[in-house]
Design a protein that fits this description.
By secondary structure, the protein is α/β, with parallel strands linked by helices. The protein has an 8-stranded parallel beta barrel, surrounded by 5 helices. The protein contains 11 helices and 8 strands. Helix 5 (about 90-105) links the parallel strand 4 and strand 5. The protein has one domain (about 5-230): Aldolase class I (TIM Barrel), CATH 3.20.20.70. Helix 4 runs parallel beside helix 5, helix 7 packs parallel to helix 8 (about 165-170) and helix 9 packs parallel to helix 11. Bound molecules: cytidine-5'-monophosphate. The site of cytidine-5'-monophosphate has 18 residues, from strand 8 and helix 10.
Length: about 230
């Protein structure tokens, strides 16, 4: 597992590969999300693997256990490094995801299984007033992390703010991967629970996911280097 995944939220394979080449980001760890995967399918994964990128396939599966198990069996054959589900799918669904991954990888290393707790675009107001879920965002995230662990996930996707509490509740080896990363002075966009790379490191997150702070930067190569530098000295 790498410590920084670039979120390739780019519309198609041609533009994504061009972006990586043009900014000398070959061989970096990348996250492929719904936008790119739904456009290109497995061919984007093959293209990135040919170029030696570590891949986090971020499709956030959330369906009945059997459907998720079968989908994960197929995704596991793509030989990606990390995949995820929504923890809100429940323990049985998470366990089914793991079973599908184990069967699909056919003796190769099983992809790391993460469960998304609360999206980093969700804040307290949305949780309480719109979704009408009880308790604080942190309480919900911890509850979902424990549920993810009970289902056999290797870790969770959460915000930097919850990393310490998750490690305390689920153990230090339970992985935390954190998006919503914004270096000082970079726009928040739709992210609500964001943090800087230094804060992420200090809170003990295992890996950060960075999208627009790199992909929309005037110099993505420099921005990537700077974030790694901040992370290394955090
Ligand atoms: O551009 P930005 O750095 O905000 O991108 C964050 C990426 O992480 C997006 O691809 C988004 O889908 C993903 N993500 C997130 N919050 C989660 C899980 C994934 O922002 N909880």
């Amino acid at each position: 597992m790498s410590s920084l995944y670039i979120a390739l939220d780019i519309e198609n394979k041609k533009k994504a590969l061009q972006f990586l080449e043009q900014h000398q980001l070959e061989g970096t760890a990348v996250k492929v999300g719904m936008e790119l995967f739904y456009q290109e399918g497995p061919s984007i994964i093959a293209g990135l693997k040919e170029r030696n990128h570590d891949i986090f396939l971020d499709l956030k599966l959330h369906d009945i256990p059997t459907t998720v198990e079968n989908a994960m069996r197929n995704l596991s054959r793509l030989d990606v490094d990390m995949v995820n589900v929504h923890a809100q799918g429940g323990i049985e669904m998470i366990a089914a995801a793991k079973k599908g991954l184990e069967e699909g990888c056919q003796g190769k290393e099983r992809p790391v299984l993460l469960a998304v707790t609360q999206l980093t675009s969700t804040d307290q107001k949305m949780l309480s007033e719109e979704l009408r879920q009880q308790g604080t965002v942190e309480e919900s995230v911890i509850h979902l992390a424990k549920l993810a662990k009970a289902g056999g996930a290797d870790g969770v996707v959460c915000s930097v703010q919850e990393v310490k509490a998750i490690k305390a509740a689920c153990g230090s080896s339970f992985l935390t991967v954190t998006p919503g990363i914004r270096p000082e002075g970079v726009q928040q966009n739709d992210q609500k629970r964001s943090a800087t790379p230094v804060e992420a490191k200090q809170q003990g997150t295992d890996a950060i996911v960075v999208g627009r702070a790199i992909t929309a930067a005037s110099d993505p190569y420099f921005s990537h280097q700077q974030i790694i530098e901040e992370w290394n000295h955090g």
